[in-house]
Amino acid sequence: MNGKVILVGAGPGDSGLLTLRGRAALEAADVVVYDALVGQGVLAMIPPNARRINVGKRSSNHLVPQHEINQILLHEAQEGNNVVRLKGGDPFLFGRGGEELELLAEHGVDFEVVPGITSAIAVPAYAGIPVTHRDFTSSLHIITGHTKAKAEAQIDYPSLVKLNGTLVFLMGISAMPTIMEGLLAGGIDPDMPAAVLERGTTAHQRRVVSTVKNLVEDACAAGIKTPAIIVVGRVCALAGQFHWAEDRPLGGLRILITRPRELMSAFAGRLRALGAEVVELPSIATQAIPDNTALTGAFSCLDRYQWLTFTSPSGVRIFFEELRRMRRDVRCLAGLKLAAIGPSTARALEEHGLQIDLMPERYDAAHLGGALGVAANGARVLILRAKIGSPELTRALERAGVGYDDVPLYETVYACANAELVKDQLEQGEVDYVAFTSASTVKGFVGAMGDLDYSKLNAVCIGEQTAAEAQQYGMKIVTAQSATIDSMIDCLTGLSRLKEGGV
Ligand code: SAH
């Protein structure tokens, strides 16, 4: 049976601009066919088990020709796959979406279209330019600077100028001199405001606001490159007053985060809310220990313990999954005291209706062991954590003469999808900071990246152990003041301010 092709507009770059329908389609995809303009953040939403086909390498010599793309879509759908064809912006606005549907329609393959937010409107919006404004203009015209035949020759500049609306040119960077000359010859006011907007809606977006007569020179001086759009019209002058995207606390920063997938979204969400562009590269994954006899053993004699201690949110999650699998009730924990290494772990317990009794002053294994050594006062402790846990915890308990059982709940495995894309970005200096929330994420990240000049990377580390690991690869390191996500975010906000100040 045939599958289906869903033509999805990915928006102009910022992953928050993908539509809900677009995301639902991605989540159900078997195969995703995408091209160069699709933002990293959107690519990260492709489920790990879906096959990815990149048909738009930036350098044009790798570009897959259109007729081949059409064939790929047809073939994959005929194999019975749910195919998502992801395209930058809106698929029908200079996106050749129409051409891609022709072959499918001919062969009776089902398709759907999910419109996207187009760069023609969103890129100006992120630069503080409303494409229409009642005081200045009442129409918007979107024009391509590049068509099948010689583009510039086809544009009727005198008519465009007469419309007196906002003009947005896509794919017009190389033809910019011709376009500006055409407008001037068509009678436009040489002092009419005009702007070039590069990589709009991403962390590294840039804008040059000028006039029709000076735009080419000013854009050249700024070294503007594609992808960029040209906007001509009085509304461009509003950018000076309405710019906002870069002004957010983490605006202008592209941050790579490496946490395990299940912990990713909360951190990423907070960074995005503060204006950062987040690239997600889950570098480690946690795997519950199968047939965990140590755990069942501990459970069969829970009354031996007075304390349970957890050292990570993953540990808490897996513990409760195991509890459920063993058909044990949370009431079996009644009477036990609970210790957590830090606030995230404490919060994970709270989500299960449990309030902790102890959390160390500093959120690391040594301090947890120290505090428990005093609090346990000779009573036995059940440690529930990763298979390879820090020996500092048990060492501190031994020093205090406290008996314990160290029960492994999970193993950390190093696993990275889409490592190649991220590596490209790192090599090109496109990532401002890499955030590491544990020493194991550093290990997983380095394992996935392999050969790379790590001395160029700016690492923001959650604590000393993580920093020590990153140090081994020569990364430039900043360490959060206290070992929490909040503190990491404070640290990044401070770094962003420094960057703004040009330091
Ligand atoms: N379907 C897309 C346009 C495809 S044509 C849409 O609706 O946005 C490709 C052109 O879009 C580029 O040459 C550039 O002019 C523009 N473009 C796409 N994304 C952009 C971005 N993030 N910043 C600036 N221009 C962009």
UniProtKB/TrEMBL annotation:
The gene is cobA. The keyword Zinc does not apply. One of its GO terms (molecular function) is uroporphyrinogen-III synthase activity. It comes from the Bacteria. Belongs to the precorrin methyltransferase family. Residues 4-215 form the Tetrapyrrole methylase domain. InterPro entries: 4pyrrol_Mease, 4pyrrol_Methylase_sf, 4pyrrol_syn_uPrphyn_synt_sf, 4pyrrol_synth_uPrphyn_synth, 4pyrrole_Mease_sub1, 4pyrrole_Mease_sub2, CobA/CysG_C, Siro_Cobalamin_biosynth. It holds the Pfam family TP_methylase. One of its GO terms (biological process) is methylation. Residues 266-489 form the Tetrapyrrole biosynthesis uroporphyrinogen III synthase domain. NCBIfam families: cobA_cysG_Cterm (TIGR01469), PRK06136.1 (NF004790). This is uroporphyrinogen-III C-methyltransferase. Its EC number is 2.1.1.107. Keywords: Methyltransferase, Porphyrin biosynthesis, S-adenosyl-L-methionine, Transferase. The keyword Transferase applies.
